[in-house]
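Sequence of ORAV1 protein (Catharus fuscescens).
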Amino acid sequence: ADLFDGIVMAEERFHGEGYQEGLAEGSHAGMAEGRRCGALHGARIGSEIGCYLGFALTWHCLLQKCTDEKNSKRIKALDSLIGMIQKFPYEDPTYDKLQEDLERIRGKYKQVCSMLNIQSDFRISTERSSLTF
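Predicted 3D structure, token representation.
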């Protein structure tokens, strides 16, 4: 009876072993893909935030020389943008309001661009830039 049990139950045993091996392999591959995707997405957000900060700091320096009321409003908006960026939680990937804060920063950036009469396009290019004649 034991000889036939091994034969009859072989399919179920092999199915279970194959499932466990596939689950382990899929989990490993999924973790590697998740890390790669997370690093890429994080780099894009970092590049975007860095661009906004560089923009804000540059304009803040340029507008310091003029002290009229219009520029004081612009400087106040730039200060607000800089403050938002400095408070952004770069090191905490589990921060639950990351997307909300990022959208607020994007909105403030667009507001500042509007105040400065500047087009607010921000695009990350994956291709190398080149000059054409």
